Amino acid sequence: MKPTAVIAEDERLLRMQLVELLAAAWPELQVVALAENGAQAITALDAHRPDVLFLDIHMPEASGLDVAHRASGRCHVVFVTAYDQHAVTAFEQGAVDYVMKPLSGARIATAVGRVKERMRTASPADLGGLLAALQASPRGYGYLRWLNVSRGDDIQLVTSDEVLYFQSDTKYTRVVTRGREGLIRKSIRDLAEELDPQAFWQIHRSTIVNLNAIAAVSRDLGGRVVLRLKDRQEVLQVSQTYAHLFRQM
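RE: above sequence
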């Protein structure tokens, strides 16, 4: 029988990319379901009982950790994520692999090799210890490292380090880099929880700034704190709620 897989990834283009890369690296693998959120992934697990699950850690409706809990002992799990690697040692307790975005054919081929070896030599791991370790850590899945940014009809992967600031824009959030900008479907509230607080500060209910992008801190004629950036002309206003962050700067 052909090996089977479920892919759980909330970004459509990345789902399709993963399908293509797996088809090239593992032609006999049958992808039996694609899930765009955690709830769909759990349903697909119960319906199809796949041999392997390629799982994004951070998804809507049910997190990747919730899905991994349901998959524990039932199928082999490969995490595919945009988050940093501080939790990699915890994943060594049971997950087959931990693949960082952006995806590449060579990296997926390596993951496929590991899955095949695990399928030959061991039953699906009990991930209970892994999940407990992640949930007990200050941030179970690390800080956001890659963003899928829409620019016109294109989706581009941008590192968080490239971003000068984020700003709410109706239903989307603007992602502003040195020379360009685009949109993502994450709220400022979500970003504030997912970005490294040592590098990014929220300065307004609608704005988060990269501290490395700040050239100067000053006050305008009304006495409000404003930030001047190193690589952009615009000035960012700091609301009274967050002004205390800059008293020592």
